[in-house]
Amino acid sequence: MLIVMKSDATESDIEKVIRVIETLGFRGHAMPGETRTAIGVTGNKGAIDPAHFENLPGVADAIRVTQPYKLISRDLRPEKSVIKVGSSSIGGGELAMIAGPCALESREQVFEVAKVVAESGARFFRGGAFKPRTSPYAFQGLGVDGLKILAEVRDEFDLNIVTEAMDEAGVDAVEKYGDCIQIGARNMQNFSLLKYVGQADKPVLLKRGMSATLDEFLLAAEYIMAEGNYNVVLCERGIRTFATNARNTLDLSIVPAVRRLSHLPVIIDPSHASGHNYMVGPLARAGVAVGADGLIVEVHPRPEEALCDGAQALTTEQYFELFNQALAIHALAAEVPSLAIAS
Ligand code: PEP
Ligand code: MN
């Protein structure tokens, strides 16, 4: 159920509706919008009688929701959400660039990349301290020591830190040292982890599982939001197909598909989508052209020495060039009305 409040509904009208929802044994999620607040109801198994709400002060309408998702939906919030991440945000007018190495390898390596990312004007730094590796013998990341380096990077360069957590202890650690908790493709349907980050105070970057449909992706975001964490950014990072020309197949069509249904921002990861250095630029540019709110890209000062994903890492020079191109495409789309990217 979705309860749409009148534009002149007061805070106490909203609180009253939420109290009624709670009395019925459910949870109310108030989503303020530009013109009105809507309140999503979760926790109910069957349909709720709209009569409970129709006559409450400030209520414009009580609507049954037939889709499987409620909180990610544009029905609840018609305007795009702008998600605050540290001192910046994702989903507003600016193109969000999240750049950094695949894995944090050493303090020197991290600082070398962070300096370049800060100089480029990007506001977000990525780097994995906990790495989900296919082989148990591959480099697993620096763990909490890596997070401490990231915290230093934030202080030194004023960059907002996006880093992956693979389990509950990792979420606690990332909450302590980082600004945004990344949930990787392999964990997109780790429902207990999704519920756990749903209770975290930091925003979540949710990557699409490599075989996830649009509905599965959106329902994973719904898991997080149903726990009360509404600060979710979606990330398309390529899916498994029969194609062998790239590590994964970048599904650009997910961007307009998400836009149509959801108010959440969506960004593109051309690095994991392609697996090849030479493809990262073209795919990133395409991602911006199709209307993504941002990019997350892997950068290494010496890709040939990288402990993880060196083949897809951009050199620092390539990264600068790409960021400038991405900004130019984004600006063009904003300036030329006929190119306006649907919002
Ligand atoms: C990553 O961003 O470091 C990563 C492991 O990505 P994914 O979960 O998309 O494979
Ligand atoms: Mn990687």
How would you characterize this protein structure?
By secondary structure, the chain is an alpha/beta fold. It is 35% helix and 18% strand. Helix 3 runs parallel beside helix 4 and helix 4 packs parallel to helix 5. It is globular, with a radius of gyration of 21 Å. The structure holds phosphoenolpyruvate and manganese (II) ion (MN).
Put the structure in a nutshell.
The protein is α/β, with parallel strands linked by helices and about 350 residues long. The protein has helices at about 10-25, 50-55, 105-120, 145-155, 170-175, 190-195, 215-225, 255-260, 270-275, 275-290, 315-335, and strands at about 1-5, 25-30, 35-40, 60-65, 85, 90, 95-100, 125, 160-165, 180-185, 205, 230-235, 265-270, 295-300.
Low-confidence stretches: none
State the strand order across the main sheet. 7-8-9-10-11-12-13-14
- Classify the beta-strand content into a percent band: 15-25%
Oligomeric assembly: single chain
Report the order of strands and helices: EHEEHEEEEHEHEHEHEHEHEHHEH
Shape: globular
Largest sheet: 8 strands, parallel, barrel
Q: What is the radius of gyration computed over CA atoms, rounded to a whole number of angstroms? A: 21 Å
How many DSSP H or I helices?
11
Based on secondary structure, the structural category is: alpha/beta
- Can you list the ligands bound to this structure? phosphoenolpyruvate, manganese (II) ion
Please estimate the helix content: 25-40%
Arithmetic mean pLDDT: 96
Amino- and carboxy-terminal Cα gap: 25 Å
Strand segment count: 14
